[in-house]
Every structure is written in C-alpha cells, then in structure tokens.
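Hi R.,

As promised, here are both runs. First protein below:
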Amino acid sequence: MTADELFEKGLLFLREKNTLSALASLEKAYALKKTPAIMSFLGFCISQERGQITEAISLCENAILQEPDNSLFYLNLGKVYLKAGDKPKSLETLRKGLSVGKNDEIRMLLERIGNRKTPPFPFLRRSNLLNRITGFILTRLRLR
C-alpha cells in the first residue's frame, strides 16, 4: 500500500472512532511519507492511544508550521492539549484554527468545552475566596 492509501485508511478508522487502528495505519504511512497531514493526525492518535503528549504536540506543531492555513491541524493540536488537560492552551489553539478557516468541528468542540463566566467581582482574582463562594451561590440559585 502507498502512503496515501494508508493515510486514507487511517482517516476512515478515525471517522469510525477507532483510534488504535488509525494509529497503526498512520504510523505505516508516516514511515513511507512525512506529509503535514499524516503528522497532524498521527500526533492526535498518539496522544489518544499512548498518552505521549510531548511527541504528539511536536508532530502537530510541525504540521502547522508547514501548512499554517489548515484548520484541521489546529483542531488536532487542540484535542491533544485537551487530552493533556491544558484547557486554556486548547481554547487558544482552537480559536486560532477558526481564524485560519471555517471549521464546524472546531466550532462544535468550542461549544462543548464552554467558556468560563466572568467572576462576580472582576476586580478580584478568580481564585479569591469571595469570588469562589459568590459564584458558587449564584450558580446554585441559577442566577448566572
């Protein structure tokens, strides 16, 4: 099989939510040909299946450096950051991906992640006890 065929097979597995099989196909494709698309999707699969976040981020960022106008690459990197537990970096990356090009999947992921509401007392830090208690009470009373 050629690298392009293996890549298409990997994408098919990803659409079926089978990241393990996608990882196997994408690794074979990457061994044959190192395109930005293969790098980006391989990075996503590595983060999901192996938890190797550093390697995944490196692959995704290299793909973005080579093709900075591809919003799918930002989506993959944003998902890697989410897997790593870095929500602020993920949101930043996903928003940058939207600025590069329209992508409904990014938009849906941003809606699912959600945004934080402004603190009740914006002049205080979010972690301030007064903000935390007031925010908790207002949320329980469904006033915010």
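And here is the second one, sequence first, then its structure tokens:
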Amino acid sequence: MITLQVNGQAHEVDVDPDMPLLWVLRDTLGMMGTKFGCGIAQCGACTVQVDGAAMRSCSVPVSAVGDGKITTIEGLSVDGNHPIQKAWVEHQVPQCGYCQTGMMMAADALLKAKPQPTDADIDAAMTNICRCGTYPRVRAAIHTAAKA
C-alpha cells in the first residue's frame, strides 16, 4: 500500500510502485482532470504539482512522490474561482482545451515561484505544448493572474 497526499486528502492505493502517477490519479483515484498526452513527459498535458513544483505525471513512478503533497487541477479550486482559472476564461485561452489543465498547473507553479514573472520567465517556464497555439493568450492570462 502506498499513501498519497492528493489535494489535501490522504489516499491509500494498492498499486505497483512503478506505476506512473498519472495512471494512479486517473485510474485508481478517478481524478480525470489530469490528461494523458504523449507518455514521455514532453507535452505537459499530464502536469500536476508536487510540493508546489510542476511535474509531468506520466513519467514519474508513484513511488518517487514519497510524502510529497500532490495538487491536481481538481485541487486548484473547487468552484473554478482560482486566479489562474479566472484569467484563462477572461483571455479565452482554451480552444480544444486538451492541454489546458496541464497549462494551468504549470502556470500556477510558475506564479508560486515568481509572483511577478516577466515574458522571458513565462516563456522559460511554460514548456507545455498547445496544438492550437494559444501561447500569446497563455502569457496574457498569466500576467493577469499575477495581478490578482
């Protein structure tokens, strides 16, 4: 049994220690907000936070998380009222929307590390891939969330 701290709650899971965190979150805990994209930690659709840092959950074995506090998109805000979520809506960031939960989790981690990021900071931190190309809107939304 592995005990995980996810969105402020303890969860005991009986899974293989090598199982990627993504699949534990989705298949075992039923948290469907974290998406599978590429499976090789390149696209960022699976981004969650562990102790406030953005992490690609598709390539991290659940055993590597240890006692870390995991935050998924479900834990960002229960009512969609988080500054990142509000800024995403204000700037109409999503098009297809598939990458957006990972983008928001990466953006929130960035703002925790750098509350007033520059464009260069955003460009360096936001390595998530968006097939729709909404990068200018992502940048604008992050600046808006930083002001909130």
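A quick note on the second one: DSSP finds six helices and five strands in the chain. Let me know what you think.

Best,
J.
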